[in-house]
Amino acid sequence: MSAGAPAVLAQGLTKRFNSFTAVDHLDLGIEKGEIAGFIGPNGAGKSTTIRMLCGLLHPSEGRASVAGFDVDRQPEAVREHIGYMSQKFSLYGDLTVRENLLFFGGIYRVPRQSFEERMRFAISMAGLEGRENALVRTLAGGWKQRLALGCAILHRPPILFLDEPTSGVEPEARRRFWDLIHELAAQEVTILVSTHYMDEAEYCNRISLIDRGRLIASGTPSELRARRLGGDLFEISCAPLGAAVKVLTGAPGVVEAAIFGDKLHVVLGSGGLGAADLPGFLGRHGIQAGPARRVTPSLEDVFVQLVSGGQKQRSAT
Amino acid sequence: MLERLPVMLIKEFVQLRRDRWAMFRLIVPMIIQMLVFGYAATFTVSHVSTAVLDLDRSRASRSLISHFVATSRFDVVDVARNQGDITRDIDHGAAVIAVVIHAGFGRRLENGRSAPLQVIVDGTNSNTALIALGYISQIVSRFSAEQAGRAASFRTSVAAPEIGIALQTYPWFNEALEDRWFFIPGVIGTLTLLQIVSLTAFAIVREREAGTLEQIMVSPIRPVEFILGKTVPYFLIGLGDIAMVSSIGIFWFHVPFIGNPLVMLLEASLYLLATLGLGLLLSTFSRTQQQAFALNFFFVNPLYILSGFAFPIASMPKLLQWFTFINPLRYFLVVIRAVFLKGVGLKVLWPDLSAMALLALVMLTVSVLRFRKSLD
Ligand SMILES: Nc1ncnc2c1ncn2[C@@H]1O[C@H](COP(=O)(O)OP(=O)(O)OP(=O)(O)O)[C@@H](O)[C@H]1O
Ligand SMILES: [Mg+2]
Fold first, then answer.
1. Which of A138, A164, B262, B365 is the most buried (most CB within 10 A)?
2. A46, A194 contact by CB (below 8 A)
3. CA of A113 to nearest chain B CA: how many angstroms apart?
4. Where are the domains of chain B?
5. What residues 278-317 of chain B have any CB closer than 8 A to a CB of chain A?
6. Is the pTM of this model over 0.80?
7. Helices A171-186 and A141-152, packing angle to 10 deg
8. Which fold would CATH assign to domain B48-153?
């Protein structure tokens, strides 16, 4: 790996399954030591992209290099430099914590002199001291995921691919997992992590938003947040929410209306309805509404708009 | 080259030891099936491979031989020149039965005297031999009736000349012509085939389904290390299984074992490698356990039917006969029966052993080559 070269680079990376395009001409560049987030709804193509980068799937088109090696032509060289946690939990449930570590350390040929120390580190990182001889299938989700991370970094790879490592894990355990990711990044490890939790996007240095195989936005969280939504964002409490979205979509001055938790987020452009007019407008359509409050857009707002904007574009063509 | 093999093996054995049902699955069905098959041993015959030796060369002897050639019950595979040819044919399993017409046969018949006919049967193949003997006596009595008819047209009154059949079993030990002795060594081969092919076919597919295979694929492990890690344990289990069911055959059913145990070990090893190779090959074609199960069913049953275990290969259509050449069970049956009952060694059995070795080599190589570290 030459200095200064990006740790991960993809150009026009494409994967087709028969006629279905799961990943569509994706460009990607991840610098060394960066935490790159891969955000997208279910079926967006996150796992497929990560599998291509790990050399598990052959790209149908385009090329990618990891640690300076071409993923399609030098997969074995790539494998020496990466750690991977697949989306599906994949340690052996019928082996103990210690046996799993011994196995994965063994197939990566971790040097004998550092093996014990790295195993102890992995065990303490997972918070499994004293439970080394527990069968892995008896562990709760958070412990399993931290142990899987521990196994994936036993050979000290400079690049880590984590595919939805926190899905189905308690919020508290998710936070602990992200602490670990940050500790690793502080040691110059490059990490590509996919998630569909929008709040986790904030923990990343850089985010790529993908939807239906296409990259629809990328940048740092604050860059993305600063993107013009095409107006100002307001939050309203109202009921019923579904009817409100229907009424507001296409109304004069409304750029976007979307359900956000138990409230409504509305983007208002210039001309047409103002923020003060909203409760009255909704009231005329039989919808009870509180006052509109101006809010700073979160990443989720940006994503929602980007994804729905993409949909409108597609249905228009 | 194989640095990661010990790690793979440790993992496989720990998993096996921890599988509470493994010991049950590996042992109990084998014992039960062995007992059931052992007690239920019977079957039927046609196209018996036959060698003939005509030391008389008379019109009568030629006529008798043409009777053998004419029926589909017997396939005359060798017209021998001397007694040595006959011994060799039966030793190598080329013929199950040999008919020897001694000099003077024709003259004795012409003089209206009784004439002896020597029939040698391969005693290890008892069932075939017994049924074939029945056919022979039919042919011979028809032949002697014809002879009587011919004679009657010349002379006034002549009784049908009597042809005595002198039965000689060879080799001598299976004089009782026990079905079981022939059947049980075959059961050992079929049970092992079923057991080992399915064990190996599922071993890899299970990891694929669990997702652990994906994790292994991103590691620098070599395909050959992974494949060997998956085969060595089942190879050892297979040896144990063969030893176990062979012991049942020998000690419970009293099947004689007169061969060399080392030859038996060699043939068991080659046979296991071939069946493991087949199981691995099937697993490289299946994504799910269901597919593995279907493939297993699709391949193992024909192997069993096209092995000569229950249906003689000689009575199959030519095309199917060709298929039997790529069936490890076909060779195993020849060898195990020979080792158990005839005691013959490598000098005779090397062609079958080499065929098994070749099959094993091809299938293991193809499955290592087909095992790409890739999901598509
Ligand atoms: N082997 C395959 N054959 C056919 N289609 C596939 C295959 N793998 C994935 N797909 C399809 O490709 C699309 C992208 O899948 P992928 O798993 O990459 O999505 P994802 O972003 O990881 O989604 P999730 O959040 O559900 O994990 C999906 O529509 C999926 O059905
Ligand atoms: Mg996924």
1. A164
2. yes
3. 17
4. 4-41+177-370, 48-153
5. none
6. no
7. 20
8. abc type-2 transporter like fold (3.40.1710)
Mutation for B interface: A49, A103, A145, A147, most B CBs within 10 A: A103
- Is residue B291 a contact partner of residue B312, using CB atoms and an 8 Å limit? no
Domain boundaries, chain A: 8-220, 232-296
- Contacts of B147 by beta carbon, 8 Å cutoff, 6+ apart: B60, B109, B160, B161
Instruction: Please list the pLDDT of chain B residue by residue as tens digits (376 residues).
Output: 789 999 999 999 999 888 878 777 788 888 888 888 777 654 445 577 888 999 888 888 888 888 888 877 788 888 888 888 888 888 777 888 888 888 888 888 777 777 778 888 776 665 666 667 777 777 877 787 777 666 555 544 445 556 665 556 554 444 444 556 677 788 888 888 888 888 888 888 889 889 899 999 999 999 889 989 998 999 999 999 999 999 988 888 878 788 888 989 999 999 999 999 999 888 888 888 888 888 888 888 888 888 877 777 777 788 888 888 889 998 998 888 888 877 788 888 899 999 999 999 999 999 888 887 777 7
Looking at CA atoms only, how far is residue A83 from chain B in angstroms?
8
**Which chain A residues contact residue B375 at CB under 8 A?**
51, 56-57
- DSSP conformation letters of B28-89: HHHHHHHHHHHHT------SEEEEEEESS-SHHHHHHHHHHHHSTTEEEEEEESSHHHHHHH
What's the Rg (C-alpha) of chain A? 23
Any idea how long chain B is?
Answer: 376
Is any atom of ligand 1 closer than 6 Å to the C-beta of A165? no
Parallel, antiparallel or unpaired: strands A263-268 and B74-80: unpaired
Separation between Cα atoms, residue A153 and residue A163, nearest integer Å: 14
Which B residues, 194 through 213, put their C-beta within 8 Å of a C-beta on chain A?
A: 210-212
Q: Which of A80, A94, A109 sits opposite B3 (nearest CB)?
A: A109
Q: How far is CA B124 from CA A290, B189, B244, B265, B306, in A?
A: 97, 16, 22, 20, 20
What homologous superfamily is domain A8-220 in, according to CATH? P-loop containing nucleotide triphosphate hydrolases (3.40.50.300)
Which CATH class name applies to A232-296? alpha beta
**What backbone torsions phi and psi does residue B67 show, to the nearest 5 degrees?**
-65, -35
**With contacts defined as CB-CB under 8 Å, which chain A residues touch B230?**
none
The minimal CB distance from B211 to the residues A51, A89, A106 is found for: A89
- Residue corresponding to tokens 């507001």: A248
| Chain A residues near residue B211 by CB distance under 8 angstroms | 86, 88-90
